Amino acid sequence: MVGIVLVSHSPDLASGLAELAGQMAGPDVHIAAAGGGPNGELGTDGDRVRDAIRHAESGDGVLVLGDIGSAILTIRHVLERMNGSVRLVDAPFVEGAVAAAVVASTGSDLQGVAQAAEEARGAHKL
C-alpha cells in the first residue's frame, strides 16, 4: 500500500491532517506527519521528513505533500539524497491529502494516488 507523508511548518497542522486523512483511509494506510523545525518550533526539518518517509514506506512507494514554499524546498533537498519510490506532488495540502489517503486505501498504485491528490485541486466546496 502507498504511504503518505505530510510536511508542514506547523507540527499541529501536520499531525491534525494526518489524523483526519487516517480516519478517512483506515488503519492500513501509513500516514506520517513531518511538522515543525528541529526543536518543534515552526519550520521544516529534513531529518523529520526523512524519518517520516521511512515510517510511511511499506513497499509500494510514498507520496509526499507539503504545505508552503520552504517545505517544498526541504522535501526536494531530502529526495535528492534518497533512493526508492518517493514522489512529491503539487496538490492542495488538505484536500490532496484526504483524496490521496482514500485512494491509497483502495490499493491503488503510486501514480493513481498522486493523480487523486493533484486532481483535488479542482474540487469545489460551493
Explained architecture:
The relative contact order is 0.21. A 4-stranded parallel sheet has the order 2-1-3-4, sandwiched between helices. Helices cover 48% and strands 15% of the residues. The longest helix has 15 residues. Strand 1, helix 1 and strand 2 form a beta-alpha-beta unit. The chain is globular, with a radius of gyration of 13 Å. Helix 1 packs parallel to helix 4 and helix 2 packs across helix 3. The chain is built from 5 helices and 4 strands; from the N terminus they run E-H-E-H-E-H-E-H-H. It has 126 residues and is of the alpha/beta class.
Oligomeric description of these chains: single chain
Helix content: 40-55%
Mean pLDDT: 96
The coarse overall form would be globular
Strand-residue proportion:
15-25%
Provide the succession of SSEs. EHEHEHEHH
Question: Could you name the ranges where pLDDT drops below 50 across 5 or more consecutive residues?
Answer: none
Distance between the termini: 32 Å
Sheet with the most strands, sense and barrel status: 4 strands, parallel
The SS-based structural class is: alpha/beta
**Physical arrangement of strands within the biggest beta sheet:** 2-1-3-4
- Give the tally of β-strands: 4
Rg: 13 Å
Contiguous helical run count: 5
